[in-house]
Amino acid sequence: MRDVETAVTAAAAAATDFDGLGRAGRAELLTAAAHALAERRDDVVAVADEETRLGPNRLHGELTRTCYQLQLFAEVLHDGGYLGATIDRAGDTPAGPRPDLRRMLVPVGPVAVFGASNFPLAFSVPGGDVASALAAGCPVVVKAHPSHPRTSRLCADILSSVLPPGTFSLVAGFEAGQALVQHPAIRAVGFTGSTAGGRALFDLANARPDPIPFYGELGSVNPLVVTPAAASQRAAEIAAGFVGSMTLGTGQFCTKPGLLFIPAGAEQLRSALAAEVAAVEAGPMLSDAIHRAFVDEVATRRTDGRLEVIGTAAAEPGERAGAAVLFRVAAADLTATHLQECFGPTAVVVEYGSVAELVEALSRLDGQLTATLHSGADEVALVAQLVAQLRQTAGRLVFDGYPTGVAVSWAMQHGGPYPATTSSAHTSVGATAIARWLRPVTYQKAPQWALPPELRDAPPEPLPRRIDGTLELPGR
Amino acid sequence: MRDVETAVTAAAAAATDFDGLGRAGRAELLTAAAHALAERRDDVVAVADEETRLGPNRLHGELTRTCYQLQLFAEVLHDGGYLGATIDRAGDTPAGPRPDLRRMLVPVGPVAVFGASNFPLAFSVPGGDVASALAAGCPVVVKAHPSHPRTSRLCADILSSVLPPGTFSLVAGFEAGQALVQHPAIRAVGFTGSTAGGRALFDLANARPDPIPFYGELGSVNPLVVTPAAASQRAAEIAAGFVGSMTLGTGQFCTKPGLLFIPAGAEQLRSALAAEVAAVEAGPMLSDAIHRAFVDEVATRRTDGRLEVIGTAAAEPGERAGAAVLFRVAAADLTATHLQECFGPTAVVVEYGSVAELVEALSRLDGQLTATLHSGADEVALVAQLVAQLRQTAGRLVFDGYPTGVAVSWAMQHGGPYPATTSSAHTSVGATAIARWLRPVTYQKAPQWALPPELRDAPPEPLPRRIDGTLELPGR
Hints:
Two copies of one chain form a homodimer. Chain A is α/β, with parallel strands linked by helices.
């Protein structure tokens, strides 16, 4: 593991100076990285398409998103609120005298990031984990996903061309990944991938003599619930929307809805779903391994006596093509295996006989990235009950929409109770993703010059701060 | 474990209504709890003194701090900024259209708290973990520390008298603690105690089918560094301050400085330290077990050929009395065992021959709650170098002061890299301790009535919110 040692040693050596660049300095670097990627747009998309077959349209969109993500973190740095800068001036309190205390978040140090297979750009080498860690001031060592090695290398070269030496490195291979998680100088890990792989690395991180945070996004079935009123009022629209969401990216999104709860006897909705699935064109899956896993899982489900096929894609499947298939099950027959994630264009439709039966089934769900509710205008009490139940398991609640499509923004939450993520208090998408790479430090009675600029009496770049308990905004 | 099952079941049943009380409702309860404790002040102090021998003065102070802590969290609730309420209105972005997204923190659900031995009030049943969890909206089940069972019971009865049924319970016993950490309905754990005990429970929490966050405060030696200038300019003052801090509470504080780095040849400082230690009166330790561990550890250190005793308390030791003792070692002879925490009134003085030797020794430290630096006015470059090094291991940096005394305030950080705490991103003291019991949820395209009040267009109780990327304060 000489590569890992070299990369981590360089990262550790670069950490203090990288932090020392400050918010403005790092914001410039993120903007430069976004520009550098955009300049090489055609090369990046071409290589990524060769390796993933996701198609130029999707990949151009993903690159745009990736550049925007880098820019968002530059904005987060300019704002500065993420630091939680807090100053308590010396004084007396009912619990005794208090010294001058000044607290803010500081980078944790070098971190490791594991790229995902299904977003070769936005959740891989130049993706959200890397962007947020660099923004935080943490040097990053990325473990490349084996499904797109050349895309990873190209993106790494582009990032390295603008970043200070040591602050970004790429390593590859299963053993390199394990060595990274166990390396004493690595202070946190970001991961997007399977529940099995993520749990194994999570366990490694926690078994260290000094456990470190492991931020893994693992698995989610993203339940979608249709109430009786919605089923009768919007059957065709929901069927089209659900199947579109389920088959987007050939069902290989972490937010793919894999469970659909509909009222028993909603014949119109059920047949609309079957018709929509029949019309889906089979797209190529990301890799032979993923394709094989999908085909095997569908075959297993076909032999499950409780499941009934209610729709299959009619189109002739091509090479490593994922042909959509929809199963149904009565809520009373639901087992734990039906509630598990299956990567690819398939879902289980659960038919519930009563609200009590629906709520009971929902209470058996594992943690989820998202939960979606389609309801009618007159179902206020029912919606309140279902939201209270779903909020216990999910990080994002979608109303009358679909879970695929994760906006990069300030208010996004992409995370949830295990196994959706290993740390439900955090997100891997959106502005607050930066919080994973920071820890608080309080300076007690420090002289002005020994403080980080953000905690000095007059900070050179204004930011929101809480002073003696009151939040204050810059320039007010 | 029928007690655990009863307590957790009641907590789970109470969770939704407790959250539904809202910030104002829970702030009222915290204030009521503070008043109820203050009303029973004499009873609480009397029972705690019988069990811990900490003395009425210290215990009255600790109760005052405990009540103030409850009030601080009421203030945190009124402020509302801790929720991180964020609204992104629907619109177009460079990465595509964005739906209406509204994010805030919500309670994780029922939590478990393990009381500490050394603060029977402020870090036990009515302490900071419980106060912050209740503020967050999480029902709490406390596992009582066996060293003060009657104090725990009395405080539990007082809290239960003002809190809604199910939101607070007390259980006792080693097995109850393990069962709590493993109970499916428990969503997070707070712990203050030994590294061995904390690590065992941390491992249990992570071995669950669904791992949950374990916020443990374990061990810290709290290094204190004296620069050459400080040693020559303020020898007497530093010796008195250090020995006072080391022996406060008979050396049984988690912030006790257990390592003192001084320049080799600082004879004046060394002899002042010896004189101060000789004058310390031996106080009673918290329990027979803690006393025995202290005596054993001191005996082991006395047989360590690298360590030399430079001062011992002259006073006749009484029953379970901890007699202060100070060792010295040359930095070149420092081993890993010298760097480990030893509960009780003892410390190791490390004499460094050069700044390089000092920095090398500091780089070998484990994670710390605090690190303290005493320096002279002309040592700006040296201080910068030492602060950069110490910040990598500690959560609080104390300048020309002493680490004991942890203010309850907005800017306090009481946590650090492992083993100081199991999660360096969090604190167990101060306003932000509430963050341990919360997780973010984003509402996508939710109707106004389905949103928590804090995310509605017009929140009934104003709070700081970030709207379309801009932080806004109430009433501005």
